Structure formats: structure tokens, C-alpha cells
Automatic annotation (TrEMBL), chain A:
Lineage, broadest ranks: Bacteria, Bacillati, Chloroflexota, Ktedonobacteria, Ktedonobacterales
Membrane topology: Peripheral membrane protein
Organism: Dictyobacter arantiisoli
Identification of the protein by name: NADH-quinone oxidoreductase subunit D
Stretch list, region Disordered: 1-36
Gene name as annotated: nuoD2
Reaction(s) this enzyme catalyzes, per UniProt: a quinone + NADH + 5 H(+)(in) = a quinol + NAD(+) + 4 H(+)(out)
Broad class of where this protein is predominantly found: membrane
Subunit structure and binding partners: NDH-1 is composed of 14 different subunits. Subunits NuoB, C, D, E, F, and G constitute the peripheral sector of the complex.
Automatic annotation (TrEMBL), chain B:
GO molecular function: NADH dehydrogenase (quinone) (non-electrogenic) activity; NADH dehydrogenase (ubiquinone) activity; quinone binding
Gene symbol of the encoding locus: nuoC
Taxonomic lineage: Bacteria, Bacillati, Chloroflexota, Ktedonobacteria, Ktedonobacterales
Gene3D superfamilies: NADH:ubiquinone oxidoreductase, 30kDa subunit
Listed name of the protein: NADH-quinone oxidoreductase subunit C
Species for this entry: Dictyobacter arantiisoli
Annotated spans, Disordered: 185-236
Function: NDH-1 shuttles electrons from NADH, via FMN and iron-sulfur (Fe-S) centers, to quinones in the respiratory chain. The immediate electron acceptor for the enzyme in this species is believed to be ubiquinone. Couples the redox reaction to proton translocation (for every two electrons transferred, four hydrogen ions are translocated across the cytoplasmic membrane), and thus conserves the redox energy in a proton gradient.
Length: 415, 236
């Protein structure tokens, strides 16, 4: 009975903002809703803001409007089917999600060493192109929030070039599911290198255009410098990762610290901020795009030839031409598509550096063909948790800058 | 001194021998299973002495047939020593609907939202949590979706595509602790109304009131008119 009371009491939502209105030192405060349909909340984030004049005293994020139960759904799918769900989490960077999930399944299966160099290089190229595409969406919308309309148009122009590459290799612009457990869905089409090179040759000049538009722009500096400052200790304590953590001056990048998919082969730097304000996070992402380009060029340079997936018939389907001729192949094909593969009992947690931060997939296997539990440690979820620490004490108008600078994707926050 | 995951396990084993249930290694990942009553103590030690300053995630796994039923899983990371370790604690005795876990928010503030998520989706309560309320599901929700006995589609439908008719009496099997349905309070009334509909009603058609009978005669599809005549005879 006591338990029941605890549960019942905890269900009441948002009791504190109304209390501060009545009594206490902040008698002149007002509680307002920002979102869930506010254009600058990047989806369906609701913020309960207690303001005194123009100053934000308290901010309570309210999430869950986009809760789609991806973790629950994955439990009813086979390992290969659940891949498609991961595309929908961070829908601005689906290939990064695919990569994290695939690596996790591969560790569970114990086939990490069988992944060929070609697959690893291709994955790196795609993940870095995806990082650039994701940062371009962020830059465009962030600048739009702060009033710089034209940047948005330029960013989406360049992002379209990257999506064209994805469409060329997989037939789909966004939800490609191209990186899959065991390798890639299909071999790279001829002409892939030229397509990517065409992009990498024009992009540095375009990146310079954004710098010209924003980095030394007085209006931009005034809107972003010393705004929404996040200290180093807070960033670590609240679990912020990615550009938010690096913007606060912590040198931490999973690609360097726990290299996956062959990142140790490439040379690149980690841009790190110093003040932890919106401008630092902005600059970290801008410089990251340069580094990503560097990695893409190196990977293209050394892109080896080889199989595009592992040759284990228990995990990847046999080639179509074998099915009509070989009984073995037909059985494997049938078993794979009716049942799937069965990893041994165990669990795996693989960390990757997605465009937003540390994306990790925790998979528990009970020996069946379905993931017993899939948990996704999404970077946006943890980064959003820090938001009140950034914007409390600042101006109401700077809340928009704060939200934009952490680059949240609500699909990943709510999953 | 360099700290690795393996050395961490050894250190904890020597300092807190009474707290450890078992240690597991799978695919080079170290797992330390702790007793729930010693969890906070060990976590504080791990953070202060062994520099595990970063909590990545807190989640849970439901094993309905097992006692204790739930695994609560913590992934922690040391930024200075570049190593990671997985902590687990097992809670949930038989017939215990909402097991309690000590909260680690005092050690890692990042645990706040993660523990709220586990509370919301698994129904585990965290003692000493500053703000324990639902985070994903609506606040008036009564059940916990990520439990294994929570049905995936919400209801077991009597017939496929039965016009959305759902028997209210279907027990999703989450237990008799609450009067269980998977709808909110508004939805319950709706379900009750739907249950009163004649079961001979044609699949895919809506229940109609008496005044609709005159206006709906111009209906074109054959099935629709059949359904009307059936309804008409029943009412007559």
C-alpha cells in the first residue's frame, strides 16, 4: 500500500513552477510554456520556464512527446530487422545509428575480426559524410533560430550533395540502413569514389563561406559569446558528450580513445573549446567538419578492394545465383529470412562517436534470434539533461541559442 | 598508477568482498554484479578513488521467470584512465511489484533522467531520487511498457481487423495490482462503449445510432447494406 502511494504521488507532474509563483523570494515570477510546438525547439520539446522579467530562473524540460517505443519494438524483431528501427532514432544521422547498432551486434556475434578492411573504410567514409550532413542541418537551423536566414539555405544546398551520394549507393536519401550487421547491404556501385571526390573538392570553399557569414560576424558573436556557459565539471557530471563536452574544454572523442571500425588508421585532430559557451560549441562543430573531410579523403585514398560483407552463411545471405543451384545455400537463405541468426548468450555495449556525441547500443542476448533487450544510450538525451544548467540565469532570448547549441534530435531523446 | 577494468575488479574485490555477487567477462567487457544494499557505497568509492567520473547510462533488463527479477545496469567510464566497466545489481523478489533500488544521483547527477526512465518504463523506484516522476509516458499512465509481460501491440484482438473493436476485459497480464488496461482514463470509457456494440456487426463498419438509419440508406457497398439490415433486425 505504501508503495502504491509513492507511485501515485510521483505521477503528479510539474508541481514546482506554480509553487514559486505564490511565495518565496521570487514573487514576481511567471511560468511560461515554450513548446512543444515552438519552431526553435527542434521538434517536440516542451520547456517550462519560470522567468522574472527577462531572466530565466528555472527551466524544466518535458520530453516524451515523440516516444515511439523503439526499444520495445526491437525485442519483437530479429537482429537484422531491428536495424531498420535504428534509422528512425536520430533521423538526421541514420548511418551513424546503423554503425553503432551493427558494431554492437557484431561484438555479440564475435565476428568483429572478420569485418574486412573495405567495409571498415566504407563505414568510416559514410559515417564522416553523415557527420558533415548532420552538422550542416544543425548549423542551418541554429543560425536560422538566431536570425541568420541565408546560412540555412546554403547549408541545405551542401547537405543535398551528401544525400545524393547516399541515394547513389543505396537508393534512399535518408533512411538507408546501408550499414548492417556483417558488413554493408550492397556493394559500392562503380563511380562512388568520383562522387565523393566531387563533394570533397568543393566543400572546403563552401565551409569558408559559412565562416565568412558567421564566424566574424559581429551580430553572431554578440548572440553566442558568453551565452549558455557550461562548465567543464558540470559537463562531465551531467553526462554531456560530443561537441557539448568538447566545447567545455574536455578532450574526449571516442574515435580516438576507443577506436572502432578502424579509426586508429586515420590522422585527425579533436577541436576543443575553452569557455563552454555557444560560440565554442559552434566553432567545435565547424572545425569538426574540416576534420571529417580530412578523414574522408584519407579513407578514399586507401579504400581497398574486397568483399562487402562477411562470408559467414549463418549471418549474411548467400548470393542469389547460388540459391537456384545449391541446396545448402537455399537452406541458409531460408533460415536467415525466416528466423535470423542466434548470437550466444551475453551482452555487448559498443560506444561510437555520432555527430551529437557518444552513441552506444547495449544489446542483451538470451540465445534466441531476437534481441532480448536493446538499450540505446543516445547523446541527445544526456545533452538535453544539461540544458537547465546552461540556460538558468540567462535571458529568455538566449534559451533559443542554448537549445540550438546542444543540437538535440527529439527522435533520439525519446526513442 | 594505471587503472584498467580488470584492476578495478580486483580492487573492488579486495576492498568490498561482501558487496560482490559475481564478476563476469564477456567479449572483453567486465561486469561487476553488486548487492543492492552496497551499491551506493561501491559507486562512491569507484568515483572518488578510481576516478570513474562519467556515468554513461542506467538501464534495466527484465527477466520475469528469475528471482530477483530485474537487472539494473550501469555503464561507467573513467576519462582519466580511459577505461570502462559495467555494474549490475539485481532486485525484485517474488510478488514485489515495484522493487526499490538506491539512487546514484548523489554520486553522478547524470543518473537523474536515466533513473526516471527506468522508473517509467520498468516500474522500479529509486530511493533518495530528487525528482522521481515519469519521463517518457504520459503522467497518468499506470503500467510500465518495457516489462516483458507488457504486450507489444497493446491488446490481443479477437479477430484481425475487427474494426478496431477491442474487448475491455482483456487482461494484458501485467498483474492484478491495478485494474490493468493500457489506455488512459479517457480511453477506458471508449472501450466500455465499444464493448456494448453488437458482436455481429460487420467488420470495418461503425456502430450507428437509430437516427442514422434513415440517412445512410444511400450507401453503395453491399457489405454496408448487409450490416445495416442486420442491425435493423436486431433493433427491431
Amino acid at each position: 500500500m505504501k508503495q502504491q502511494e509513492i507511485i501515485k504521488n510521483t505521477y503528479t507532474l510539474d508541481k514546482d513552477p506554480t509553487q514559486t509563483q505564490e511565495e518565496g523570494p521570487h514573487a514576481d515570477t511567471m511560468t511560461i510554456n515554450m513548446g512543444p510546438q515552438h519552431p526553435s525547439t527542434h521538434g517536440v520539446l516542451r520547456l517550462l520556464l519560470t522567468i522574472e522579467g527577462e531572466t530565466v530562473i528555472k527551466a524544466i524540460p518535458d520530453i516524451g512527446f515523440l516516444h515511439t517505443g523503439i526499444e520495445k519494438t526491437a525485442e519483437a524483431k530479429s537482429y537484422h530487422q531491428a536495424l531498420v528501427l535504428t534509422d528512425r532514432m536520430d533521423y538526421v544521422a541514420p548511418l551513424s545509428n546503423n554503425l553503432a547498432y551493427s558494431l554492437s551486434v557484431e561484438r555479440l556475434l564475435g565476428i568483429e575480426d572478420e569485418i574486412s578492411e573495405k567495409v571498415q573504410y566504407t563505414r568510416v567514409i559514410l559515417a564522416e559524410l553523415q557527420r558533415i550532413a548532420s552538422h550542416l542541418v544543425w548549423l542551418g537551423t541554429h543560425a536560422l533560430d538566431l536570425g541568420a536566414m541565408s546560412t540555412f539555405l546554403y547549408c541545405f544546398r551542401e547537405r543535398e550533395l551528401i544525400l545524393d551520394i547516399f541515394e547513389y549507393i543505396s537508393g534512399v536519401r535518408m533512411m538507408t540502413s546501408y550499414i548492417c550487421p556483417g558488413g554493408l547491404q550492397a556493394d559500392l556501385p562503380p563511380g562512388f569514389n568520383e562522387k565523393v571526390r566531387a563533394f570533397t573538392s568543393i566543400f572546403p570553399a563552401r565551409l569558408q563561406e559559412y565562416h565568412d557569414l558567421l564566424t566574424n560576424n559581429q551580430l553572431w558573436l554578440e548572440r553566442t559569446r558568453n551565452v549558455s556557459v557550461l562548465s567543464k565539471d558540470d559537463a562531465i557530471a551531467y553526462g554531456a558528450t560530443g561537441p557539448v563536452l568538447r566545447g567545455s574544454g574536455v578532450v574526449w572523442d571516442i574515435r580516438k580513445v576507443f577506436p572502432y571500425s578502424g579509426y586508429e588508421r586515420f590522422e585527425f585532430d579533436i577541436p576543443v573549446g575553452s569557455h563552454g559557451d555557444v560560440f565554442d560549441r559552434y566553432l567545435v562543430r565547424m572545425l569538426e567538419m574540416e576534420q571529417s573531410l580530412k578523414i574522408v579523403n584519407q579513407a578514399l585514398e586507401g579504400l581497398p578492394t574486397g568483399p562487402y560483407r562477411v562470408s559467414n552463411p549463418k549471418i549474411t545471405p548467400p548470393p542469389k545465383w547460388q540459391i537456384t543451384g545449391s541446396m545448402e545455400a537455399l537452406i541458409h537463405h531460408f533460415k536467415l529470412f525466416t528466423e535470423g541468426y542466434r548470437p550466444p548468450i551475453g551482452e555487448a555495449f559498443v560506444r561510437t562517436e555520432s555527430p551529437k556525441g557518444e552513441l552506444a547500443v547495449y544489446l542483451v542476448s538470451d540465445g534466441s534470434a531476437h534481441p532480448y533487450r536493446m538499450h540505446v544510450r543516445g547523446p541527445s538525451f544526456a545533452n538535453l539533461q544539461v540544458l537547465p544548467r546552461m540556460i538558468e540565469g540567462g535571458f529568455l532570448a538566449d534559451v533559443v541559442a542554448g537549445i540550438g547549441s546542444i543540437d538535440i534530435i527529439l527522435g533520439e531523446v525519446d526513442r | 598508477m594505471v587503472i584498467t577494468a580488470a584492476s578495478t575488479i580486483e580492487t573492488v574485490q579486495s576492498v568490498f568482498p561482501q558487496a560482490i555477487v559475481e564478476t563476469v567477462e564477456f567479449r572483453d567487457e567486465q561486469t561487476l554484479v553488486l548487492k543492492p544494499e552496497h551499491l551506493v557505497e561501491v559507486c562512491a568509492y569507484l568515483k572518488q578513488e578510481l576516478h570513474y567520473a562519467f556515468l554513461e547510462t542506467v538501464t534495466a533488463v527484465d527477466w520475469p521467470e528469475r528471482v530477483p527479477r530485474f537487472d539494473v545496469v550501469y555503464h561507467i567510464l573513467s576519462l582519466t584512465h580511459r577505461c570502462y566497466i559495467r555494474l549490475k545489481t539485481r532486485v525484485g523478489q517474488r510478488r514485489e511489484e515495484h522493487p526499490t533500488v538506491p539512487s546514484v544521483t548523489g554520486i553522478w547527477p547524470a543518473a537523474n533522467w536515466y533513473e526516471r526512465e527506468v522508473f517509467d518504463l520498468f516500474g522500479l523506484t529509486f530511493s533518495n531520487h530528487p525528482d522521481l516522476r515519469r519521463i517518457m509516458m504520459p503522467p497518468e499512465w499506470t503500467t510500465h511498457p518495457l516489462r516483458k509481460d507488457y504486450p507489444l501491440t497493446g491488446f490481443e484482438l479477437p479477430e484481425p481487423h475487427w474494426g478496431g473493436q477491442v474487448p475491455y476485459t482483456t487482461d494484458p497480464g501485467v498483474g492484478d495490482y491495478y485494474q490493468q488496461t493500457l489506455r488512459t482514463s479517457d480511453g477506458r470509457g471508449l472501450n466500455e462503449k465499444r464493448q456494448q456494440v453488437n458482436s455481429e456487426q460487420e467488420p470495418g463498419t461503425f456502430a450507428r445510432s437509430a437516427e442514422d438509419d434513415t440517412s445512410a440508406t444511400s450507401s453503395t457497398t453491399r457489405s454496408r447494406t448487409q450490416a445495416q439490415s442486420q442491425d435493423g433486425t436486431r433493433k427491431g
